[in-house]
Amino acid sequence: MRPVSRSALRPYICPSCRYGAVSGRRRFASKPTQVPDIYDVVCVGGGPAGLGLLAALRSSPATSNLKVALIETQDLRKARAWNLESHQFSNRVSSLTPSTVSFLQRIGAWEHLDKDRAQKYQEMQVWDGETGSRISFDWSMETSPFEDLRTVATMTENANLVRALLSRISESGTENVSIFSNTTVSSIENGIDYPEGPDLSAWPILNVSPTGSAESQAPSRIAARLLVGADGINSPVRSFANISTDGWDYNRHGVVATLALSEPDKAPFPIGMRTAYQRFLPSLGGPIAFLPLPNNHATLVWSTTVENAAYLKSLSPKEFITMVNAAFRLSMPDLKYMIRMERPSSSSESQGYSHEDELTWRLQHTPQPSQIPPMVTGVQEGSVASFPLRFRHASSYISPRIALVGDAAHVIHPLAGQGLNLGFGDVASLSSTIEYAVNHGMDIGDILSLERYPAERYLVNAKIGGACDVLHKLYNVPGNGPVAWARSLGLDVIDRIPFVKGFLMKNAEG
Ligand SMILES: Cc1cc2nc3c(=O)[nH]c(=O)nc-3n(C[C@H](O)[C@H](O)[C@H](O)COP(=O)(O)OP(=O)(O)OC[C@H]3O[C@@H](n4cnc5c(N)ncnc54)[C@H](O)[C@@H]3O)c2cc1C
User: What predicted TM-score, i.e. pTM, was given to this entire model?
Assistant: First the structure.
């Protein structure tokens, strides 16, 4: 991405003061009289958050008449045409909470999702690999056998979701909506007061350029009454608005993969129930999570040190599978040994003892807990990848004529699978804030119109991001010292006090 010019100070100039400020205003060096194309809402970023916002605005009678544009660097034609065989799954999968699903239903996007590729789960088994203490969240206990099982979350490939959102937007018609994909925002500047035209002096103006063959040609300059940054962790919109972020890198990577299983997950009762498993592995740098997918598959998110991630990615499929099975079954010292075993290229001849032999031998001497995931028998080719894990929180979600949503506003540790859910929470709130402003004849870009949005979202996001951060830190202290003791006490206490557990279950539902 090309560097985005920063406007160090982007003051909001109220109409009564603006004539006094004209001399200090930025002006374009070239073509100052050419008025840019004017839109009510311009969203930068066509990831799930940006497309979710567009779909929400298009689905409400109050906001469907707004003139909206979305600009995305990637080619969204590929996202529309995305198609995989039923036994293959993308490695980017998110667990969507019931409140995210109900938002997607409300805006008409859920019916466009390929449900055969999505998997609900009703139970979560979480345990500490160091102390063995365990907590289980079983929603089936809360419902009668005659009711539908209550869902903790629904596993959905991000690509399936993006395709569904695009399809929902297409269904809403072509009037007043422009999607400029294969197009990048190269810089953002303040507008000017056009002597013979509109006063755009307090409006952001985007300079855009194609990154490939575009479906629809974007104008080179676009003015936004409200500019929404749904443009991810390095948000150019956030930089333009001069909004700072707090945060740190965890120095951990999330290793993801699509796994094939030996047999369906056999939850004893009721039939059809599916379970997600997460085991904290403090000595290896974070938890390993196994989340169910349809057709006897699962998706893996293993948060671990950068070195361990590199090691896991270097293994052959057979060895990788063995390490995943080991991570849910062996003791910490055994695992630490196995993750330092010589790599396959040199190991087979020099030692003659493979990861598989090692696991088979060690399992004979390791008592197994009652609840562990089914054995993994395969890993989809090309699905093993890793992503750096980071924490970021913007100091503000709004500034005059600007709002940030999704990863542009906050990035959190994935151990609770909440990042995208928070993004959809933002989108639901911002779209209803815009709807309210339209219904009350307010200017949708005015800071007073926007204030409702951070009031609803900022603390919620800070609380969940902070809780994930604390959990990450707590579960990164290896050994059996006081922290491990406090940890196990924590999990055991939570598991035994129905009130506390009920509270946590409600929060996990979203
Ligand atoms: C390993 C891992 C597992 C996760 N698991 C879960 C989970 O189970 N549940 C969950 O809720 N969340 C999960 N998350 C988090 C989730 O993936 C992210 O929060 C989510 O994808 C962010 O979506 P977004 O639309 O905000 O941003 P992004 O998906 O980053 O989209 C930003 C878009 O902006 C575009 N863009 C950027 N700059 C420009 C520009 N200058 N011009 C035009 N376009 C631009 C980019 O091309 C991109 O498409 C996980 C994250 C990781 C790393």
Answer: 0.89
